[in-house]
Structure formats: structure tokens, C-alpha cells
Design a protein that fits this description.
It is a single chain. The chain is of the alpha/beta class. The protein has helices spanning 11-23, 40-46, 49-61, 66-73, 77-90; strands at residues 3-8, 35-37, 94-97, 103-106, 111-114. It has a 3-stranded parallel β-sheet with strand order 2-1-5.
Length: 115
């Protein structure tokens, strides 16, 4: 089972952590979160029930394109495109090359754990 660990930290805490890693003063641990949010509110927006359902659908059905995901989910392709772009930027999904060069969303985890 692959788990995505998500952390909550203030902007200043994340900045200090990132700078310490860049300077070589700190090495991220294997068990540390890979995705960070600055507040519970921002995490809740991205990890809403609707978006968690979307991630589950991506994991279970492995759609070959955003259009196929739109048909499976009942959401518009434009809405999904924006949501997937945000999720991709955060590392929640990967956009792979699908059939006929279309972008295919992939969720490479079995669960999400908030720490």
C-alpha cells in the first residue's frame, strides 16, 4: 500500500524547512509529508469530498483522458482540467501521456494521510 502523507505548516515554517534543505542543513526524512498546505482550510479545499471521490475514481478506473474522466465523473472537462492542474502542481496526481497524446490523470497512492 502506498500512502501519500500530507502536512500542515505555516508559510514561514515551510520556507524555513525548504531553505534548510537547500542549504544542506536538513535532509527530509522518508516518513515526512511530501505535500504541504499552509492551513487546514487550504487542505480542505483541495481534499474536499468531491475531489477525494475524483482521486478514487482516477485510481480505480485509470481513465485514458480528461474527457473520459469527465464522462465517468459527471464533471465538465474544463472544471476537471483546472482541478487536475492544481492537484498535479501539488503532487497529488501525475498527468501522463494517454491515448492519442491526450493527458491521462494518474493517482499513484492507495491512501492519503494528513499529519
Amino acid at each position: 500500500m502506498t500512502t501519500l502523507k500530507v502536512g500542515i505548516a505555516t508559510y514561514d515554517e515551510m520556507k524555513q524547512r525548504t531553505l534548510a534543505i537547500a542549504r544542506g542543513d536538513r535532509k527530509p526524512g522518508r516518513d515526512e509529508p511530501k505535500v504541504w498546505f499552509t492551513s487546514m482550510q487550504s487542505a480542505a479545499r483541495i481534499l474536499s469530498a468531491e475531489n477525494r471521490s475524483l482521486l478514487g475514481l482516477i485510481h480505480a478506473k485509470r481513465p485514458s483522458s480528461i474527457a473520459e474522466l469527465a464522462a465517468l465523473s459527471g464533471r465538465s472537462a474544463n472544471n476537471l482540467s483546472r482541478t487536475l492542474k492544481t492537484m498535479s502542481r501539488l503532487g497529488l496526481v501525475n498527468m501522463e501521456k494517454g491515448e492519442k497524446g491526450r493527458k491521462a490523470p494518474r493517482f499513484a497512492f492507495d491512501e492519503i494521510r494528513l499529519e
